Amino acid sequence: MVVVVSVPVSVQADDIGATARAKQWSLAPLGVAEAWQRTRGENVVVAVLDTGVDARHPDLAGAVIGDTDLTGTDRGTPRWESHGTAMASIIAGRGHGENHAWGVSGIAPAATILSVRVTLDNNDPQRRQGRTWGANALARGIRYAVDHGAKVISMSLGGGSGSWRGAETEERAVRYALDRGSVLVASAGNDGAGTNCRNFPAAYPGVIAVGAVDRRMRVAPFSNRQKYLSLVAPGVQIVSATVDGSYVIGDGTSSAAAIVAGVVALVRSEFPRLTPSQVRWALERGTTHAPTGGHSPEYGHGVVNAAHALEAAAKAQRRPLRAEAPFPVSSASPVLSRGAPIRGTDVSRRIVCSALVLLVLTMTGRALARRRRRARKFPIYR
């Protein structure tokens, strides 16, 4: 996250919950209330691949199943699950109190959260100590989520410092999920005002990459701009739950991705037979504030809208889209076909020559150079 500040806690707990609900500005412009007339995400399991979820938070009571940890690190005390808890609440927070009128209401409050811990919070002491954690945790987490019934996989994470970068193990896990009908959503990254590098897992073909906009539906300066961006969602001053029953307000594409994962859960609940490609089409077809030309690296296909996505999904169900492979296996894939992970630096984008293609013409030969981009290491985005 770019900014995280605590909601004032000097008042009664119920007042804190009321304040949190009042500050949830992002629900109104996304057609959520209208979508809730049809579904609230019933019968859908959303896997949150993150830092773990504090299921004790009152807004998540009864919403969380599982507590799998693939990091191989100590959870310790106090609990270091703030980021995962925040994302889970944005997706499926149920509020609390009479008629659930207080606290955070998620986009799909009737959905179920499957918590899969694959990374550490930025303020986790083990991260500051340079501790390493589970090899291929993200790839294993994706497969675990699919095998345990998740039809939506939310990944508000990315980047590297050498440990998280494009790799064939993750590419294969993404393909595994798509082939089995799971929809994957990931944050585009928060260095749009800086290096604006490619961010994995968002950059994997088949993953719905999400950028962030502010209250006026303007692209947030920190939101990464890339040609593979699918759409954008609110990611500025987003209220979410955190550990110990409290709340935070934060900025970042993490929150935007969680919002989109919630919308996917609504579509999945109402139209469970749609393929991942059809779900993605419905979200992109149902956006508002679409850019000129229908797509841009800054805005993707536009701002996600829950009500419009359901309408588009109904059309997709009546007129099924032609089945297509999750993504092609070719040299254009973001991961090298031989399995070597994409490498690079945090300073500049590296462009390398990949091959020389010999073209034989009657008596002479000509060599043509082709270029392709390779991604770089970059920090985990929060």
Automatic annotation (TrEMBL):
<dbReference type="InterPro" id="IPR023834">
    <property type="entry name" value="T7SS_pept_S8A_mycosin"/>
</dbReference>
<feature type="domain" description="Peptidase S8/S53">
    <location>
        <begin position="41"/>
        <end position="302"/>
    </location>
</feature>
<feature type="transmembrane region" description="Helical">
    <location>
        <begin position="347"/>
        <end position="369"/>
    </location>
</feature>
<keyword id="KW-0645">Protease</keyword>
<dbReference type="InterPro" id="IPR023827">
    <property type="entry name" value="Peptidase_S8_Asp-AS"/>
</dbReference>
<dbReference type="InterPro" id="IPR051048">
    <property type="entry name" value="Peptidase_S8/S53_subtilisin"/>
</dbReference>
<keyword id="KW-1003">Cell membrane</keyword>
<feature type="active site" description="Charge relay system">
    <location>
        <position position="50"/>
    </location>
</feature>
<keyword id="KW-0378">Hydrolase</keyword>
<dbReference type="GO" id="GO:0004252">
    <property type="term" value="F:serine-type endopeptidase activity"/>
</dbReference>
<keyword id="KW-0472">Membrane</keyword>
<comment type="similarity">
    <text>Belongs to the peptidase S8 family.</text>
</comment>
<feature type="active site" description="Charge relay system">
    <location>
        <position position="254"/>
    </location>
</feature>
<keyword id="KW-1133">Transmembrane helix</keyword>
<dbReference type="InterPro" id="IPR015500">
    <property type="entry name" value="Peptidase_S8_subtilisin-rel"/>
</dbReference>
<protein>
    <submittedName>
        <fullName>Type VII secretion-associated serine protease mycosin</fullName>
    </submittedName>
</protein>
<dbReference type="GO" id="GO:0005886">
    <property type="term" value="C:plasma membrane"/>
</dbReference>
<dbReference type="InterPro" id="IPR000209">
    <property type="entry name" value="Peptidase_S8/S53_dom"/>
</dbReference>
<dbReference type="Pfam" id="PF00082">
    <property type="entry name" value="Peptidase_S8"/>
</dbReference>
<keyword id="KW-0812">Transmembrane</keyword>
<dbReference type="InterPro" id="IPR036852">
    <property type="entry name" value="Peptidase_S8/S53_dom_sf"/>
</dbReference>
<keyword id="KW-0720">Serine protease</keyword>
<feature type="active site" description="Charge relay system">
    <location>
        <position position="83"/>
    </location>
</feature>
<dbReference type="GO" id="GO:0006508">
    <property type="term" value="P:proteolysis"/>
</dbReference>
